[in-house]
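Ligand: adenosine-5'-diphosphate. Inputs:
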Amino acid sequence: MIKILSDDTIQKIAAGEVVEKPASIVKELVENSIDAGADQITVEIKSGGKTYIRVTDNGNGIESPYVELAFVRHATSKIDNFEDLYSIHSMGFRGEALASIASVSHVIMKTKSENEEVGTHIEYDNNKLIQKKSIAMNTGTSIEVLDLFKYIPARLKFLASDISESNKITQLMYVFAIGNPSISFTYLKDNREIFNSNNTKNRLDNNSVLFGKEFADNYIDIQYETDNYKVIGSLSNNKYYKGNRSMQFIYVNGRYIENSELISAIERAYHNYIPNGRYPLYEINIEVDPDKIDINIHPNKQKIKFSFEDELLTSLNENVSKALYEANHPKLVENKIEEDKYTSFYEINADDSYQRVLDAYKAPVDFNQVNKKDKPDIFMEDSNFDDYANNADDNKNTDFIIENNLDLEDNIKFTNDLKEDTQQLSFDESSFEYKTILFSTYIVYEDEKNSLIRLVDIKRARERILYDLNKEKNQNISQDLLSPIIVELSPTEIENYELNRDLFEELGYEIDLFDSNSLAIRQVPYYFDSPSDSKFFTEILDGIDKNAIDTKNKILRSSIAIASKLSSHINEDQAQSLYNELLDRENPHTNESGKTIIYEINKDSFIKFIDR
Ligand code: ADP
Ligand code: MG
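Predicted complex:
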C-alpha cells in the first residue's frame, strides 16, 4: 500500500540529513552565529552533546516578529534566489538547520536584536511551539538544544559513545577557532573549559592557546604566492609534534577542507625531521580564485578539487621544506674565519655528515697538543658526540643547543691557548658573580677580576641533579595529577608499555589502562612541573629500546630529560640555587651522560668569537 507520509515524518527525515549527530548541530549553530556577525561565541556541551548543547553569541540577533520564521524550513535571511547560491559568502544558506533541530529535540532560543528593548524567548519541543515570551537580555542569541533525538530512539541508538561524540565536537571547535582568529571562542565540555581563544586577530596568540603553549616556541611560518595560489600558514617545527593528525587544519578561502594530497605534501617535508608515526601541527590558509576550485557544497562535506593541483602541492612541499630547513640551520654568527681550519656551526649543520665534526676535533693545532687522557670533561669526547647523534631521547628540543655548544668548543677552546685553565676549572666561587640568564638556556656568571665568564647549561644542570637525587635515594616520589592525562597509543606502544609497566611504577608513575588503545596517567614523578599533554609519555615510550640493558635507568633519564625540557623557564633565585646545588656535586662539569654542563670562556676568546 502506498501512502503519503505525515508532515512530521517528512520533517524528521529531512532533519536527518542536516543533523545526523551532535557535532552537526554545533556546526550549524556556530555557523549561524558567525553569519550573525558575532565576535564572541560560547559553546557548551554535555554528554557528547546528546543531552545538552548551548551556543551563545553576541551577533545581531533576530527581531521578535521573525523569530518563528527562523524555525520554518527553507526560511532564511541569507539568499533571495537561486543565483545567490553562487555568490554567497555566508556559511549556511539552506534555511534548514533550525527547523531540523527543532524537529528532533527540545530547543530554547533567546534572542534580541540591537533595535529592540527586550528580547524573545521561544521554545520548541519535538517540532511543537511550547512558548514564546519577552525576556530581558543583551543583544545576541543563545540556543539550547536539549535531549537530542529524545523522540527518535532509533536515531539515538546510532550515536557513538559520549566520548566519541564529544571528540568530534572538540575537533570541530578547533576548526572554527583556528579558522576564525578574529572571533573569541569559548568552549566548555561537561562543565570544564577546554579553551578560550582571543579575538586579537593575532594568529600567534591564538595559536598558542589552541595548539598548546609550546607552539609559540616551536613554529615556523610560511607565506608565498604562486600563479594561482596565495598561501599563508604556521606549522610546528621539528621539535613539536603529535601522535595523530588531530591538529592539522587547512582552509581554502576561509573554509575548512580535508584533502589527503595536501596533507601528504606537507608531511613529506617533515620526513627525516620528526620520527615516524608522529605528525606536525599546522594551520594553512590557501587563497584561490573560486573559479579554480570545486567545493562540494553539501553542508557536512568539506571535499574540494583544485584546478592547478600540482602547482599547489609542489609549492607547498617546497616552501614547508625550505622553512624547516632554515629553522634548523640558523646562521648565528657570520663566519669569516679562515677556511679549512675550523668547522663552524653552520657548516656542521649544512652538511649532515658528522665525520667532519670528528675531523674537526683532530685538526686544530692546539687540540693536538692536549694529552687526551688529561683532557678535562669540558671537551666533549667523540663518543659523547656519537651518543648525542644516536641518542634521540636527549633531546629533540636541544639539538640546536648541543650543536651550538660544540661550536663554542670548536672555535673558542680549540683555537685558543686554553688548555691550562680548562684543566683547572677553578671552583673558587667567591670570584664568580651571577649575571643573567641567556635564551632561557644558560646561566651566566662572571669573574671580573680574571676576565672569565661561565655558562651553566640549565637543562643539563637540572637533569644532573635530579638524576643524582633519584639514584641516591632510590625511592621515587610521585605527585597526583589534577586530572588524569589520557594518552592514545598504538598497539605496539601499548605493548611496549605493558612490558615495562613495573619499571614505570618503580619510577613514580601511576598508570591504568583506560581503554583498549589508551592509558590514563594519574601520577607522575615529582620533578614534573605539570605536564599538560600526553606527548611526553609517548616520547619516553618511543625511547625505550627493547634490547637495552638497563631500561629502568633509560626511562629515568628520559623522564628527567623531558621534565627538564618542559620547565625551562627559571628566575634568578632558582638559577642560583640550581647552581649551588650543582657545585655540591662531585664533578659538576658534566651530566650523567657525559655532556658538558659548565663552560668557561675567557674574555679574549669571547671577543675573538664574536668578532672573528
Ligand atoms: P540558514 O542559516 O541557512 O539561513 P537556519 O535554519 O540555520 O538557516 O537559520 C534560519 C535563519 O535564522 C537565518 O537565516 C537567520 O536569519 C536566523 N538565525 C539563525 N541563527 C541566528 C543567530 N545566531 N543570530 C541571528 N540570526 C540567526
Ligand atoms: Mg544556518
